[in-house]
Task: inverse folding
């Protein structure tokens, strides 16, 4: 339980911090990408609208400086002129022939230019790019004048349109974005590793009170059970003597028998509590004795031992056990685990049904399952079956015996051996308890 709580604590810490970290860095990346797209769009738009014969201006123009109290220079379209990329603009005819090239101090390969012109003239959108070449472009259609409000009228009159295509090289921006992406990824990985180490250390500190309370509870159960064994043994012995005492009237012996039954019942409970405490101790400390165990033989023996009990309930035990399956574990505890599952199946199997015991191995996974046909366990009860003193039959009928500790002990044994246990129940498939090692 403590290991599960510790894992949960670490997972919650990492998920919360990771969400914040990824959110912040993701927002930063998105802001960078948006800013770069805006700069590219602004540069392309300016290249289309500016005079082709003008040289592009970089920085502050016309002697206006911030020191002199001037404002940042704006072009005729009201855009800030110091926030742009150098762009090349070309005028092309409708059939793709380059008519004119702007005076921008940048050059472009003729084959690349042909590819850009072809894409731009045939694209459905006015903007696009060639990512593998780190090129972005924008297209605008013109006629014999720059009156763009009457395009349909010019087409109706038969004017031949021509296009102006602006081109910018986005290599620097793309590389900068990729570098930021790599840096952010490294930051996330390093932060998660550091966070895991810190969370794992903090989990030990945070769970110290829980661990102390759990140890105290386990120790109390073990100590109380040990202390109860001696007086219970005396009570059982005395009642057995009284039951055979000829001097006690027959009508009084029923009280002796009732006391003996309750003492035996309580001794069984104490033994179960001791086993549960030992199973918890083995799971928590890993101190359980382990050796090479023939699990196939153990399961087969358990099924054979309860064959007579199943027969008394008019049931049949069928086994499907692969031979030669070995595990590292405690033979006594594994035997107890198999017996708990088969005994539980026999108790709750309906008369005239078959109990199936299966053991198989696939790769490094060993699966033991026990299935019985009987009353279907409510789905709401399934998650609680392995809790201590929990029983799905709310009446807690003594005829079936038990205290609701058997499955809790089975769970402790399975976990002490590094495995898991689960249960399913349905009308069609019956009730199945599955142990995976």
Result:
């Amino acid at each position: 339980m403590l290991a599960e709580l510790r894992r949960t604590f670490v997972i919650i810490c990492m998920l919360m911090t990771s969400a914040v970290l990824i959110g912040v860095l993701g927002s930063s990346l998105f802001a960078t990408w948006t800013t770069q797209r805006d700069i590219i769009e602004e540069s392309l738009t300016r290249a289309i609208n500016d005079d082709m014969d003008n040289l592009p201006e970089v920085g502050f123009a016309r002697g206006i400086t911030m020191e002199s109290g001037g404002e940042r220079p704006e072009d005729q379209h009201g855009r800030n002129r110091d926030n742009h990329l150098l762009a090349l603009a070309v005028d092309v005819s409708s059939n793709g022939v380059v008519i004119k090239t702007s005076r921008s101090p940048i050059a472009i390969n003729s084959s690349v230019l042909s590819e850009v012109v072809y894409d731009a003239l045939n694209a459905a959108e006015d903007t696009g790019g060639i990512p593998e070449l780190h090129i972005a472009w924008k297209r605008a259609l013109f006629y014999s004048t720059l009156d763009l409000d009457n395009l349909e009228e010019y087409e109706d009159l038969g004017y031949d349109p021509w296009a102006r295509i602006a081109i910018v090289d986005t290599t620097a921006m793309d590389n900068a974005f990729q570098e930021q992406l790599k840096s952010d990824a490294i930051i996330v990985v390093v932060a998660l590793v550091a966070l895991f180490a810190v969370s794992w250390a903090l989990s030990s500190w945070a769970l110290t009170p829980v661990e102390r309370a759990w140890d105290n509870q386990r120790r109390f159960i073990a100590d109380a059970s040990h202390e109860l064994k001696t007086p219970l043994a005396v009570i059982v012995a005395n009642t057995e003597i009284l039951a055979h005492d000829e001097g006690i009237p027959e009508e009084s012996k029923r009280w002796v028998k009732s006391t003996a039954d309750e003492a035996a019942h309580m001794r069984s409970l104490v033994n179960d509590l001791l086993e549960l405490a030992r199973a918890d101790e083995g799971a928590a400390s890993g101190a359980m004795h382990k050796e090479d165990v023939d699990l196939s033989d153990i399961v087969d023996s358990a099924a054979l031992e309860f064959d007579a009990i199943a027969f008394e309930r008019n049931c049949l035990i069928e086994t499907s056990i692969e031979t030669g399956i070995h595990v590292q574990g405690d033979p006594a505890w594994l035997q107890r685990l198999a017996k708990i599952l088969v005994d539980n199946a026999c108790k709750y199997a309906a008369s005239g049904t078959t109990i199936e015991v299966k053991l198989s191995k696939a790769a490094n996974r060993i699966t033991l399952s026990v299935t019985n046909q009987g009353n279907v366990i409510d789905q709401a009860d399934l998650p609680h079956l392995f809790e201590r003193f929990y029983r799905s039959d709310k009446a807690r009928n003594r005829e079936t015996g038990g205290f609701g500790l058997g499955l809790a002990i089975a769970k402790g044994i399975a976990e002490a051996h590094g495995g898991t246990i689960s249960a399913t129940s349905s009308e069609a498939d019956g009730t199945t308890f599955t142990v995976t090692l």
In short: Residues 60-73, 75-81, 144-151 have pLDDT under 50 and may be disordered.
